[in-house]
Amino acid sequence: MSKIVGIDLGTTNSLVATVDSGIPYVIADAEGRRLTPSVVHVGGLGVEPVVGHKANRVRAVRPLETVYSVKRFMGRRGSDIPREEMLVTYPVRGDGAGPVEIDLHGCAWTPEEVSAEVLKKLKADAERALGGPVTRAVITVPAYFNDAQRQATVRAGELAGLTVERIVNEPTAAALAYGLDKLKDQSKIAVYDLGGGTFDLSVLELNKGVFQVLSTHGNTRLGGDDLDTRIVAFLAGKIREAGGPELLDTAETRVLQPETLPMLSRIREAAEEAKIRLSTDESVDIALPFLTSGFSFSLKFSRAELEALTRDILMRTRAHCLRALSDAKLEAKALDQVILVGGQTRMPLVRMLVGEWFACSEFEETRGDLRLGESYHAASGPVLNTGVNPDEAVAIGAAIQAEILSGGMKHLLLLDVTPLSLGLETFGGLMNVIIPRNTTIPVKAGEVFTTALDHQRSMMIHVLQGERERAQDNWSLGRFELEFERAPKGVPRVGVQFEIDANGILHALARDIRTGQQKIMDMKSAVDVSDADVQKMIEESVENAFDDLNARQWIEAKLKAGETLMATRKGMSEHAGELEPAYRQRVESALRVVEAALETEDSRSKIGDTPRLKAASQELDEATLQLADLMMDRAMEEMLRKQGLIQ
Ligand code: AMP
Fold first, then answer.
1. Is 647 within the bounds of a domain?
2. Which of 119, 319, 365, 504 is most exposed by smallest CB count within 10 Å?
């Protein structure tokens, strides 16, 4: 079976991730790049499309045949899309109820077909990195995607030769990447996702390890690209002032002549690069040598200037945050965490603003020191968690979801507690719990056991997992035998210790306390149990709780009765001559009552009349008091005689 990969099919960039030995990571392409621009260039009819960085490079010079941001059109009818959203540089047709189509060299492409090209590239990168075919994937979509948009995403996957095992909401995937499924139940999380082209804020609630999207709000045309456009306009103005070419008209964003396109493409690249560098540096030098044959341009650009230039764009995300909170009927302070997703959230101003809006009041003071990987906890209000690479979080979460679906990573989800009780089978077929369910691991626990029969030479350690009272109803993890010298029952002492290490492996040890001889057995499946199986076991234990309790009480009463019967018979035969016939008769009849009570055991359920057996045993105990005294006296005399104290 092919490995299931996790794919973040983004508006601006797409990523593919996987989990190896429990560690999730983003798969790089042959050049070592982890982000693939979601851009497809179709050079001509019948020509193999070019995808990713290569397509992005020709985007400015071949605007009519290079498709970007196609995610906006996925699963949407032409009539549903506002006119301004149709304003892209490539020809989009979408009238009425029909799907959107993109005209490339006279050929109509659906958005799914374009997305499939991006997916094919990711699939090929994954296959190269993993060294085998990749045919299954988990793909993420925005929480606000409707059914048609989700179906279109599944179709894109299928066109790329992938079976889409699950569609996961992007904020949910991000929360999974942050490990927030480990938070306490009812935890509320806000996911602030500002990527290249889109923004959304989602409020999630965690319930029994499952996230539910309470609300989501955003703008599908607001993102890092808008900041780049603003910087380009600023630079175009500076270039004009410095005597360079006129690049944009006064409306600042319209291109004047096609021949300026390559120049604008260079300026846009420089603008984005400066913006990214200013997330770590206070100022940068923008250099554009030989913009035209006789004109070179350079400029010092500071973080403060960038912030002043773009602040209003970022401020536009605030209304969406407020709206999402109000839809979820929550105040910011009711949130436990706010996580940042999307490359643009690396910008310090974004972090500062989000910190402020969500009431991380002390955030401003520490802003200069705040780096990736750090979490900041305000005096009141939620934690601003920035521990995961913001542009990789969604892909990483998709990979974790994929791994869970493949049956791996259960230990990762359950590592912190034992999903079911662990114990061993004791005499009579009962489960003796050593480590109860929900115990935090790693853990070590033990108990001392002895033999129930005379002259036993070994003890069988049968390791069980489950919540049922009888051994047979639990799962057997394994068994091993510890041998020791034969001895009367109750004399051998065997210490049994269970240890679950941090990897979830159970080491079961049995040691003969007298000699120190020991045996250890390692069992891997102690915590590696599917959620469904755990659920089934717990449901069965609840359903059968009454019968199980009856069974345990019956078995315990039966064991005790069995012991008393044996001891009584032994005493009666050893001291037959010393007992009055009337007394012997009384004991005999009490014995028969116990035997009759034992016979009430049902052949199918293996449960008998416990109250009757307990009453009979009690009667026998009382009847044998005199016999017990006599046996004690004789044993004392024997001992004193052996020691030469009496004749
Ligand atoms: P995404 O859609 O999540 O891949 O985000 C892409 C956007 O994040 C683009 O607009 C990038 O310019 C922007 N971006 C990436 N890294 C940084 C950074 N270090 N600082 C600011 N913006 C960044």
1. no
2. 365
DSSP per residue, 531-575: HHHHHHHHHHHHHTHHHHHHHHHHHHHHHHHHHHHHHHHHHHHHT
Q: C-alpha angle 369/15/353, rounded to 5°?
A: 30
Interatomic CA distance for residues 404 and 411, integer angstroms: 10
Interatomic CA distance for residues 482 and 428, integer angstroms: 19
Of the listed ranges 28-42, 59-73, 122-136, 398-412, the least confidently predicted one is 398-412
Higher pLDDT, 365 or 498: 498
Q: What is the 224 CA–ligand 1 centroid distance (Å)?
A: 6
- CB 434, CB 551: distance < 8 Å: no
Contact 420, 385 (CB under 8 A): no
Please classify residue 639 by burial: count the beta carbons closer than 10 Å to its beta carbon, then call 0-12 exposed, 13-18 middle and 19+ buried: exposed
pLDDT tens for each residue of 50-87? 999 999 999 888 889 999 999 999 998 888 777 777 77
Ligand 1 pocket, residue 13 CB under 6 Å: yes
Q: Which residues are catalytic?
A: 8, 71, 170, 193
Q: How far apart are the first and last CA of the chain?
A: 83
Burial of 40 (0-12, 13-18, 19+ CB in 10 A): buried
| Number of helical (H) and strand (E) elements in the chain, helices listed first | 16, 28
Q: Check pocket membership of 272 for ligand 1, CB cut-off 6 A.
A: yes
> Considering the domain boundaries, does residue 540 fall inside one?
no
**Is pLDDT of 417 > 70?**
no
Same domain, 502 and 598: no
Q: Which of 308, 343, 369 is a domain's end point?
A: 308
Q: Is the C-beta atom of 38 inside 6 A of ligand 1?
A: no
Candidate from 391, 392, 394, 396 with most ligand 1 atoms within 8 A of CB, to mutate: 391
| C-beta contacts of 43-46 below 8 A and 24+ residues apart | 44/105, 45/105, 45/106, 45/107
Residue 349 above 50 pLDDT? yes
Q: Domain count for the chain, please give it.
A: 4
Residue appearing with tokens 């770590």: 280
The residue out of 382, 415, 448 marking a domain boundary is 415
Q: Confirm or reject: Cβ of 36 under 6 Å from ligand 1.
A: no
> 236 alpha carbon to ligand 1 midpoint, in Å?
22
